[in-house]
Amino acid sequence: MIKLIDVDKYVESKYQRIFILKGIGLEINSGDFVSIMGPSGSGKSTLLNIIGMLDKQSAGEYYFLDEPVHKFNERRTSKIHKEHIGFIFQAYHLIDELTVYENIETPLLYRGVKRKERSSMVAEMLDRFQMVAKKDLFPEQLSGGQQQLVGVARAIIGKPKLLLADEPTGNLHSSQGEEVMDILKQLHKDGMTIIQVTHNEKFAGYGQRIIHLEDGRIVS
């Protein structure tokens, strides 16, 4: 599903190139659950953002479903991202002015899903995450754990082929974190490909393999 060949990410300063990622080679198959670990500043989130097409590499090749992402224009990249990729963020990234229902519905609006179909898809998510009673509340009226569940529902409502999770439990206490991880485990069981960045050894173990990054390189 994903193939990175010799991928670099760097910024140019006045006198030198500062590398955030260096020589990344990585293959992830459909149906994999992969955890990425490493110290702060090792390039984990940057790698996830490149895989998620929110950022572009400076050099190297990226293939997604055998298509050369490194050759895509912005419009094509955006289309593939919307159609195939779901993203869960540590800081939830919910829209404060929208209700729980509207936040979950947002990706479907971007994809032009018809109103009746949207309505039944959102209802299914609210039911699945036991949030029917909270559908008209705003993010500030929810606990951190509830906000993250809305974030998960929004990320998976379009049935993405790939789910990316950047420290999905980072702002949650342990029981809320376990709830989110159990949902990811179930999604993986249902066939979804998942890549998560985490600092938590226990939650990293939910993946089938762990990739360790250090100073922008894969060390194991």
Structure at a glance:
This protein is an alpha/beta fold and 220 residues long.
Structural description of this entry:
The protein is of the alpha/beta class and 220 residues long. It has one domain: Rossmann fold (3-Layer(aba) Sandwich), CATH 3.40.50.300. Helix content is 35%, strand content 26%. It has seven helices and ten strands. It has helices at 44-51, 74-84, 100-110, 115-128, 144-156, 174-189, 201-204, and strands at residues 2-12, 17-28, 33-37, 59-64, 67-68, 85-88, 162-166, 193-197, 209-214, 217-218. Strands 6-7-8-3-9-10 form a six-stranded mixed β-sheet, sandwiched between helices. Strands 2-1-4-5 form a four-stranded antiparallel β-sheet, covered by helices on one side. A hairpin with a 2-residue loop joins strand 4 and strand 5 (67-68). Helix 3 packs parallel to helix 5 (144-156). The longest helix has 16 residues, at 174-189. The chain is globular and about 55 Å long.
Ordered list of secondary-structure elements with their pairings:
Elements: E1 2-12, E2 17-28, E3 33-37, H1 44-51, E4 59-64, E5 67-68, H2 74-84, E6 85-88, H3 100-110, H4 115-128, H5 144-156, E7 162-166, H6 174-189, E8 193-197, H7 201-204, E9 209-214, E10 217-218
Parallel strand pairs: 3-8, 3-9, 6-7, 7-8
Antiparallel strand pairs: 1-2, 1-4, 4-5, 9-10
